[in-house]
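Human:
Take a look at this sequence-structure pair and walk me through the tokens.
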Amino acid sequence: MKVLALIPWLLAGPLATADETLDPVAVDATIDLVRITRVDELYWTLSRNASREMFAEKRITGSQLQCFESVEIETYTQAIAVFLLRDLRIEEIQSALDFYSSPTGVKFQHMAYQLNWEKNPKEFPLKVEGPKQSMNLAELTALGRFRDSAGGLRLSCPLTYLNRPEALSTIGAIFLETRMVCEDIK
């Protein structure tokens, strides 16, 4: 089976510039934000589900399915982090990371993800365990402050932000690159 080396391809892709250097602190904060909001897990799971549907429809072989499923979640983590680093200021990333790491941010995300999964588990396959939650006035105030902050203006809903064409083309590139590699396998 071919080894997928997608991150170097993405980093060297059209978004990169020859003299680009990324601040290691910003990189770490962005990767933490991607992981805590689980957007990497969402797109990784959607990709895996799409490849399984292709297999069920007999559009790919079992070996090709194994190839698709060999792509690790870290590939999505890195690609989304690179996109965010190039598109956002570190203040926005840090503000969003601070919020989503807070008890209020964790609760807000739990509520939003639970609602999204209940409405459409096929399009939002991240099931959230636990009872339904609600927010008190202090938590709603904190949420409002975040939405008005540097990070909240664009990242109060990370999934909406990543459903823009520029972001989807970065995420879709992973699936397309994988598909090109995997289709060579019989």
Remarks:
- The chain has a mean pLDDT of 87.
- The chain has one domain: 23-183.
